[in-house]
What we know:
There is one protein chain. The protein is of the alpha/beta class. It has one domain: 3-Layer(aba) Sandwich (Rossmann fold), CATH 3.40.50. The chain is built from ten helices and six strands; from the N terminus they run H-H-H-E-H-H-E-H-H-E-H-E-H-E-H-E. The protein has helices at 2-16, 39-43, 57-62, 83-92, 96-110, 129-135, 139-151, 174-182, 190-193, 209-218, and strands spanning 71-76, 121-124, 160-162, 185-187, 197-205, 225-233. The strands form two sheets. It has a four-stranded parallel β-sheet, sandwiched between helices. A two-stranded antiparallel sheet has the order 3-4. Strand 5, helix 10 and strand 6 form a beta-alpha-beta unit. The longest helix has 15 residues, at 2-16. The two termini are 35 Å apart. The structure holds zinc ion.
Amino acid sequence: MKSKNKSRGVLSNFLHLFLPxxxxxxxxxxxxxxMGACLSCLYKLPKTNxxxxxxxxxxxxxxxxxxxxxxACYCVYTEGGVLPPLIHNLKYYHKKEIGxxxxxxxxxxxxxxxxxxxxxxxxxxxxxxxxKKSRGYNQAEIIAQGMSExxxxxxxxxxxxxxxxNPTQTKLTKTExxxxxxxxxxxxxxxxxxxxxxxxxxxxxxxxxxxEACGIALQKCKDIKISIATIGEVF
Length: 235
Ligand SMILES: [Zn+2]
C-alpha cells in the first residue's frame, strides 16, 4: 500500500511539471496561493453561520442524545453544490490541503465567538487504524489541524480512540446497527479530558450517530464538556 501511494506521488509530481493545478470544483486553473479550490468557488460555499444560533438544526438533531454545549456546522452539504467535491477530494484523492483550508476558514469565522472561547481542546473523530493506514490520514484530523492552527487551541489526536472495526452492517436491523456503533469509541487516558471542554471535529454530520457514539465514550471523563464542529451538515 505504501509503495503504491509513493509511486502515485512521484507520478503526480511528474505530471505537475506539465499540468497546472486546477480547482476541484470548477476545473479552472488555480492561481498562486490558491489551494485545492479557487477563491471564487470558496466564496460560494453555503455557510450556515449556525454557531451564532442556539438551538440550530444540528443541536435539535442531537438534543437528548448526549449532553453537549454547542454544535456548529460550517456549510450546508447539498448535492451539486460546492462542498461535496471538496469533501470528496479530501477523503478519496489525497487533497489534504483542502481539509486544512476548510478547517482554517471555519476557525476564522469562529475565532473570538462565544462558541469557541470556552473550548480547551480540539479532538477529531478517529478513523479506525486500518482505514487510516489505507487512506494514509484521517480527514477529520486534517480539518482539526487547520482549526487548531488558527485558534491556537491544542489538538489532541490520540486519546479518543476507535476500538472495533465495524463489521458489515447491511444485514443488521436498525437497533442492532446502533448497538454495533455505540461502543466503537473509547478514551485512553480519562484524566487528560477531565474538566476539559472538548471540541469534537468531523467532516460531516448526517444522522449524528458517530457524534453520539463519541459523546458516549467522552462522557466517561469526569466534568467534561462537549461541543461539536463539522464542515458539512447533511440534513
Ligand atoms: Zn473553482
